[in-house]
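Assemble and predict.
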Amino acid sequence: MASSSSSDSSAPQTPQLRKDSVTNRWVIFSPARAKRPSDFKSKTPINPNQQQQQCPFCIGHEHECAPEIFRVPPDNPDWKLRVIQNLYPALSRDIPAAEEENNSDSGRVVVNGFGFHDVVIETPVHSVQLSDLSPREIGEVLVAHTRRIKQLMSYDSIKYVQVFKNHGASAGASMSHSHSQIMALPVVPPAVATRLGSMKEYFDQTGKCSVCESNSKDLLIDVSAHFISIVPFAATFPFEMWIIPLDHSSHFYELDSEKAVELGGLLKLVLRKMSLQLNNPPFNFMVQTSPLGENASQLPYSHWFLQIVPQLSVVAGFEMGTGCYINPVFPEDAAKVLREVKVS
Amino acid sequence: MASSSSSDSSAPQTPQLRKDSVTNRWVIFSPARAKRPSDFKSKTPINPNQQQQQCPFCIGHEHECAPEIFRVPPDNPDWKLRVIQNLYPALSRDIPAAEEENNSDSGRVVVNGFGFHDVVIETPVHSVQLSDLSPREIGEVLVAHTRRIKQLMSYDSIKYVQVFKNHGASAGASMSHSHSQIMALPVVPPAVATRLGSMKEYFDQTGKCSVCESNSKDLLIDVSAHFISIVPFAATFPFEMWIIPLDHSSHFYELDSEKAVELGGLLKLVLRKMSLQLNNPPFNFMVQTSPLGENASQLPYSHWFLQIVPQLSVVAGFEMGTGCYINPVFPEDAAKVLREVKVS
Ligand SMILES: Nc1ncnc2c1ncn2[C@@H]1O[C@H](COP(=O)(O)OP(=O)(O)O[C@H]2O[C@H](CO)[C@@H](O)[C@H](O)[C@H]2O)[C@@H](O)[C@H]1O
Ligand SMILES: Nc1ncnc2c1ncn2[C@@H]1O[C@H](COP(=O)(O)OP(=O)(O)O[C@H]2O[C@H](CO)[C@@H](O)[C@H](O)[C@H]2O)[C@@H](O)[C@H]1O
């Protein structure tokens, strides 16, 4: 696939704006603001967790947590993972389902904060990080996400489920015990609507799926039988990575448990490479999927993926004002660096 | 103007989603995640700057800076402010103006990174912060912004100019000497296009300007002859504030020097209240204005304003994934707290 960089993957030396055909976002790639891509390191690396006396997510402290939804294996005090309610939920499952209240006088649009906000405790042991788990165990975490989404699908008023992980304080984590979160929303959120619209436009213009088309040699990091990891062509953040299923599939919850193990393996590899190359940075990962209630045949242009973002720079006034991002590292360069990291 | 809160301005006790009619953004207001609004404090307050030996922005160090564009007063070694080129510009003024290069094979959209990236040194003295300046001096900073925008308007390929300020390391500032930045872009950035579209939709539906309509008693902080400060109805961030000109005006560069002094006074008040109430937090401010080359009569729905955001919380996986934000403080409560701060 063509790209603006020359064949040896060396990136241009003048700044360039790129528009991502998936997210529809302009990103400024700015060599003048860059160190060498191989010099990027987190300034706030994560120390391996110390065992904490007071962590409610640790095994044996289940009574300090909000109610459990399910555990794996079921009914077993020696659990491997637990899905629980969030003790401080952003949305409430105990109020009437959302009804759009459009105050016509003022044009103010208000919706009841009905929804679900759950936590997935990914391991019983405080000192274990997600990337320490085996591919099979990471697969079980991903299957727990899909299982919970399938439960939440039974609520008609839930329009979208966001699965995400915050790891490290400067990536927003208030709990250091390895966990992820699942939020079920009564609206399709703006970034999702924009992404769907952008993928549809690309499909209408080219007859192709924009996510399938992200796969190009100069952006590839690693590949397994059914998944690839890449740096996206217009990566919003330095060393942002996507893991994409090679089979065109609109919804993350369609992931089966066998492929989940394979995905677990590739995710583990990506996280270990990131850690080695970038000095164990705080990071976020987000599942980017399609709204509920729209089936695959309605969404020929939509394709889910995992987005992984190491926390290396601060979003500031320019980004807040414009929604445009400045990325000092060209994606071709980041991909080359990540391709070459040796994981023992 | 009606609002969903009761007349004593006490906010609802259950979560609520609100859609901002200006930014078109959904925000989740979540009392369960809140401390009392009056308990919010920055955990990384800014210490008054120490005089630094090595600061290129200090008076006497002009030779350590990238080239000057203008200073106030002109030709005076005893300057009050300077507008200079950014030494590490995100965009380059030395390459051909942007031409959209649409690689039809791959659908990849690339534009030359032509543009301008300037710095405004707001004071010659390292230890002085913007809020320490007099209303007249702050007015001069704002007039320097408008003057530079008017220069940049002569380039046809410049579509939008973003004026912003980062104050404090966790708000992204890499330089502690008081400064702001001006970036001139060859594209209309996505958040601006979304805002314009949202304001237009509101205008088409109601015949009114959404920014004019933001003015309501329960959201008001302070008022001067030609400006108000408010907390917006669907504030994205806790204690976010907007300063809005009462005269409906589409472009910030239309600000005249007399009104700039008045605006300087209201901005100073807002910054001092924020500092006192929230423990001198890092903050960003952004000028939200209209694209260049569209004049006021084409934009009856568009109205510029200043957005001020104290840095109190971390944007994490949920916000990155959805573009939806969680704000623990209801705007009515934040406005009440800020209205009542006594500034000596
Ligand atoms: N005993 C208990 N039982 C059950 N649940 C418990 C619990 N103790 C704590 N929790 C919950 O566990 C969650 C841990 O989540 P994270 O550490 O990933 O980040 P948090 O949601 O705090 O905020 C980050 O992520 C959000 C969403 O992206 C951002 O809004 C925010 O600014 C950022 O700091 C919290 O939501 C907390 O409410
Ligand atoms: N001697 C000199 N002469 C001229 N200019 C000089 C100079 N020395 C330094 N500069 C420039 O001065 C500017 C100071 O800007 P700020 O401190 O507001 O934040 P910065 O732009 O570094 O990045 C923050 O803001 C941007 C934009 O929002 C984010 O992308 C980023 O992550 C965040 O840290 C820098 O842009 C720097 O290049």
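The radius of gyration of chain A is 20 Å.
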